[in-house]
Amino acid sequence: MNKLNIQAIFDSIDGECNGFQGAGQLTTFIRLKGCNLSCRWCDTKYAQNPKPENWMAIDEIVEQIHFPKVTITGGEPLLQRTNLLPLVEILLTDGYSITIETNGTEPPFAEIDTSFRELRYVVDFKLPSSGMTKRMNSLAFSDLNSMDIIKFVILDKEDYDFARCVIFEHPNWIARKVFSPAVKIKYIYANTWGEFEQPDTVIPKRLCIVNDEWPRQLAEMMIRDRVPAQFSLQLHKILWPDAKEER
User: Which residue blocks in the chain are alpha helix, DSSP H?
Assistant: First the structure.
């Protein structure tokens, strides 16, 4: 029986571009365990190492899907490609829309005809801040179609310049390009009248979110340089900044 090593299955919203309706779409997430990279800024380190007790059969997984949109993520889901393929084929046959989020080291499924318009790939291209740029595999990018997405998680100006060069040096990559700022959320607290004060000067009454300046700076550089890419915030991190794992 085909089984997959699962970190978690949970209902949420797609926080970023997904190849379909985009951020905000109600989605069931299937997060697989195990990864072949170790990015410096990884926000799912808890899903990197497989544990034997987390194996689930395909029919058990399907029973926990509540929305017609499914996002398969990790870890790196395509490391389990042999057992993942039957699940993807079942979901496509049953009419689900699927996004597979992958890290740029593994090629898409050759077994699934690209004419399947309800399957999209979101492929990360790891930039210098990740420490994993040399691990990128051209096969993960060259067979994508125009509905798929190449995502650049950009931490600083060096990452931005690197991503621009990648885009212009590979005009044959027809997938949409997305720049996503690596956002660090800052916290301040509000008193009962909603006036902002420092955390050490007031008893916390309500948590407020203040983003740093980097997302705005990135957007302005993209506008200035007329970068042929889409800007995308990680909406789920803004909505649930205190989430420890899945949200």
Answer: 58-63, 81-93, 139-142, 157-169, 214-225, 235-239
| pLDDT of amino acid 125 | 97
pLDDT score for 47 = 79
Q: For domain 3-182+228-239, give the fold.
A: TIM Barrel (3.20.20)
* 208 half-sphere exposure, CB direction, 13 A CA radius: 14
CA distance 58 to 95: 16
Alpha-carbon distances of 137 from 126, 132, 134, 217, rounded to whole Å? 10, 11, 9, 30
Query: Which of 67, 84, 85 lies closest to 14, judged by CA?
Result: 67
Lowest mean pLDDT among 46-50, 77-81, 197-201, 220-224: 197-201
Number of neighbours of residue 112 by Cβ within 10 angstroms: 14
Task: Report the residue count for the chain.
Answer: 247
Task: Give SS3 for 217.
Answer: helix
Which amino acid belongs to residue 87? Answer: L
Contact between 196 and 208 (Cβ < 8 Å): yes
